[in-house]
Every structure is written in structure tokens, then in C-alpha cells.
Amino acid sequence: GQQVMQIPQYQHVQEGEDFTTYCNSSTTLSNIQWYKQRPGGHPVFLIQLVKSGEVKKQKRLTFQFGEAKKNSSLHITATQTTDVGTYFCAGQRTGGFKTNFGAGTRLFVKA
Amino acid sequence: DVKVTQSSRYLVKRTGEKVFLECVQDMDHENMFWYRQDPGLGLRLIYFSYDVKMKEKGDIPEGYSVSREKKERFSLILESASTNQTSMYLCASSYEFSMGSEQYFGPGTRLTVT
């Protein structure tokens, strides 16, 4: 079945450093979504990418969808302590119903 | 704002008990989902429903069943709870499947089976 792999599993950064998490699928995706889960909270939708090569920005967050629509990345510039949490990618296979979540990348930010 | 509520934040049950987890959404969403979340494994889909009385198995349906008698309510049932079902259970809803409608999650139920 469709696998969505996400790396790294954990990332420790100093406040102000950049952070990137990567998501890879074994099959072509129709779209990819990103969610953030704060410690003790539930996943909250951040953004959805649909087009090949698409790049979207939300303030310090940059989201990319690969040309082949099999991979995606989330980059945070100059991390802040408020960025801590787990970031999940979630991909929907072309023609499919299910959204498959990656295992998540947990971000720790040291002040 | 979309609101997804779950009946309990914390639940402790004994092995062999029948357990009901309830989820209610207030946005008239077509789709509802049950996931379990375990460290290092992310969110794994147990069951989902795309309409009243309709259900589909997810990736890990064994040991679980679901019920959707009304559009706003989706219940997860553990027929005979076992210790390996100790986990965080998350309910979610979304408007439509086509082109990946965003999912709205409830606060979660942390279930411990002893």
C-alpha cells in the first residue's frame, strides 16, 4: 500500500536556526497536506499543496511539493520556541480516498 | 469554527471490557475518521466513514468496529479491549474527499487498558 515516509524523526535546534522536514511517498500523490501538533494537543491543518512544483509560504514557513508529486518539504526559517511540536505530512494517492500520514518530525527548540 | 469533540480525554479500562469512544462534529461534514497515535508511528487510520451508515476499513481495523447512525456522530468500539490497544485515539472530520479536504481533529482520548 501507499507509504509516506517522513524524516527526520526528531530535530533539536537552537532558537534562530533553520529547520527542515522531508516527506517521501512511494506513489504519486494528488495532494499533500501539512499539520502541526503542539505538545499535548491535536493535529492542526497548516496547508495543502496540489500542483507539481508548488511552493507556498506562511510567514517563516515554506512548503514545497516536488515536480514528480512524490515528495514534499517544510522549511522553517529562524525557528522560535513557539515552533515546537510535531509536524506531519499527509498524502492522498491519486484516485484514492485515504490520506496517509507520515510518522511526523518532532521539533525541539532551545532558547 | 469547526468543532470536533470526543467524549473523554482520559479513559482507563480493564482487559476484556467493551469500550465505546464517541466523536461529534458540528460542521455537517460528510467524512469522519478514527486514528490511533503511538510514538514513532504517527497517525494510523482505523476506520473512516463517508456517509451515514457507511464505513470503510483503514489500515489497522482489527479489534475495532465503528458506528455512524447520524451524520454528526461517529463511534469507535473496542469489542474486547486488550493492553495493546492502549493508545491515543483521535477523531477527525472533513468536508469531502476529492482533492484532499483538510481534516479537523478532536482533542483525543488517551485510553489505558490494564
Kindly summarize this structure in a few lines:
The complex is a heterodimer of chains A (about 110) and B (about 110). Chain A has about 110 residues and is mostly beta strands. Chain A is about 0% helix and about 60% strand.
CATH superfamily of chain B: Immunoglobulins
Mean pLDDT value of chain A: 94
What does the overall shape of chain A look like?
Answer: globular
Q: Work out the count of structural domains of chain A.
A: 1
Round the Cα radius of gyration of chain A to an integer and report it.
Answer: 13 Å
Please describe the biggest sheet of chain B, giving its number of strands, its sense, and whether it closes into a barrel. 7 strands, mixed
Series of secondary-structure elements of chain B, N-terminal to C-terminal: EEEEEEEEEEE
Question: Key terms for this structure?
Answer:
heterodimer; A: 111 residues; mainly beta; Immunoglobulin-like; six-stranded mixed beta sheet; five-stranded antiparallel beta sheet; 0% helix; globular; B: 114 residues; seven-stranded mixed beta sheet; 56% strand
Question: Helix and strand layout, with pairings?
Answer:
The complex is a heterodimer of chains A (111) and B (114).
Chain A: E1 4-7, E2 10-14, E3 19-25, E4 29-37, E5 44-49, E6 55-58, E7 61-65, E8 71-76, E9 85-93, E10 99-101, E11 105-110
Parallel strand pairs in A: 2-11
Antiparallel strand pairs in A: 1-3, 3-8, 4-5, 4-9, 6-7, 7-8, 9-10, 9-11
Chain B: E1 4-6, E2 10-13, E3 19-25, E4 31-38, E5 42-51, E6 54-57, E7 64-70, E8 73-78, E9 87-94, E10 104-105, E11 109-113
Parallel strand pairs in B: 2-11
Antiparallel strand pairs in B: 1-3, 3-8, 4-5, 4-9, 5-6, 7-8, 9-10, 9-11
